[in-house]
Amino acid sequence: MPERRSAVWRGAEVRLSDIEYRLLQVLVRNRGRVVTTDQLLDQVWDDPQGIGRDRVKFAVLRVRRKLQQAAGGPDTDPIEAVRGLGYRYRGDGAGDA
Question: How many CA atoms lie within 13 A of 66 on its CB side?
């Protein structure tokens, strides 16, 4: 079983896989800025060639679902998809992961 990590989102603990945790860390560190898919591949998966671009999409989807389940609904999603570029963490600072 992969190593499990956790974050706290809106007062609820969220269990994350190692990849999900690293993904969320990169997004949170860059709060308010767009992190490109290529940057995420490089920083989270060590894949600077961008061979596994779908990895990012599906990992973000898993993190979003876990955060929404922990906080009670889709209106609590702190990750914004920026079409054609990447993702932006827009957490409000209160109880963020």
Answer: 20
> Scanning the structure block, which residue is given the tokens 């998809």?
81
Q: What end-to-end distance do the CA atoms of the chain give, in Å?
A: 23
* pLDDT (tens digit per residue) in 20-47: 999 999 999 999 999 999 999 999 998 7
H or E element: which one contains 34? strand 34-36
Whether residue 94 has pLDDT greater than 60: no
pTM of the model: 0.82
Nearby residues of 14 by Cβ (< 8 Å), 6 or more positions away = 6, 7, 8, 66, 67, 70, 97
